[in-house]
Amino acid sequence: MLTTVRDLGAAVRDARRRAGLTQQALADRAGVPRQWVSRLETGSNPGAEFRKVLDLLAALDLVLALEPAPPHEDDLFDDLFESPSSS
Fold it and tell me: Cα–Cα–Cα angle for 71, 79, 65, nearest 5°?
């Protein structure tokens, strides 16, 4: 699960390495500068243009999927102490 820019960067880096690509090769495929790839991988580019992020993922044959977030622990705790609704 990706919840931070650093998580996304680590996922991109891992996928790039599995694909046997250098940062430059990936940058060339995605049409972005190599330094941009480096900043994304290290999580130091939190304002990365989302279109470029999608282009980079496409260059790695990855898609971004959205799914509902799991309940927060606080919500689960509160559910335990809710009074039963009256019928």
Answer: 15
Going residue by residue through the chain, which has 87 residues, state the pLDDT in tens, using 9 for 90 and above.
777 788 889 999 999 999 999 999 999 999 999 999 999 999 887 777 888 888 889 999 988 886 887 887 766 556 556 656 544
Please name the residue that has the structure tokens 């971004």: 64
Q: State how far the Cα of 31 lies from the Cα of 22, in Å rounded to an integer.
A: 14
Q: In whole angstroms, give the CA distance from residue 11 to residue 5.
A: 10
Domain 5-80 belongs to what topology? Answer: 434 Repressor (Amino-terminal Domain) (1.10.260)
For CA atoms 74, 75, 78, 80, the dihedral sign is negative
Is the sign of the CA dihedral 39, 67, 30, 19 positive or negative?
positive
CB 15 within 8 A of CB 59: no
